[in-house]
Amino acid sequence: MKKKLIKTMLFASVMGLILSVVFPSILSVRAALQEDQVTAIPEENSSTYVPSEDELKGLGLSEDEIAELMRVQDAGITLKNGVAYDENGKKLTLKERGKLSWAVKILRKAWNKIPKKVKNAMGGVAGFEAVLSFIDHFTGKVSDAIYLGCRKIGLSKAVSWWVMKILTLIAF
Q1: Of 40, 134, 148, 168, which is most buried with the most CB atoms under 10 A?
Q2: DSSP string, 115-145
Q3: Backbone phi, then psi, for 79, in 5-degree steps?
Q4: The model scores a pTM over 0.85
C-alpha cells in the first residue's frame, strides 16, 4: 500500500515538473513566432486615426500641446527587416552597429527627451521596452509601428496616437 502511494506521488511530482517546464516553453515559442509575424497592416488605418480635442483634453493636455501635436507630420520613414527607408525608398543608415533596428536605436536615444507624462502613460521603462520590442520586428511605417506597439501594451487609441506623435516629434 505504501509503495503504491509512493509511486503515485512520485509519478504526480514528475508529471507536474514536466508540465511546469514544457507547457510554458511551448507557449513562449508560440508567442515569439506570432510576434515575428507582425506586418504593416494598420489597425483601422492607425496613421489616419486622430482623436478628438475632447479626448486629448481628457488626457490632461493643454490647448497649446494639442495644437502642437496636430502640426506633427508623419516622418515618412518605413521599416523593412530592421532597415529604415525614407519616403523616396532611399536606405537610411545609422553609424552604430548592432542587432536592433534603426528606429529602436533612435527612440532609445530620445528616451531622456520624452516628457514625463508620456513616460507615465507608457508605463515607464517597461512599457517603452515592450513598444521597442514590437517596433524591432515591424515592417511598415514607423508611425504605425509606434501606434500599434502602444496599442499592443494596452493603451487606448487616443493615448497611442498621442505617444506616437510625441515620439515622432522628438526622435524623427
Answers
A1: 148
A2: -HHHHHHHTHHHHHHHHHHHHHT--EEHHHH
A3: -105, 140
A4: no
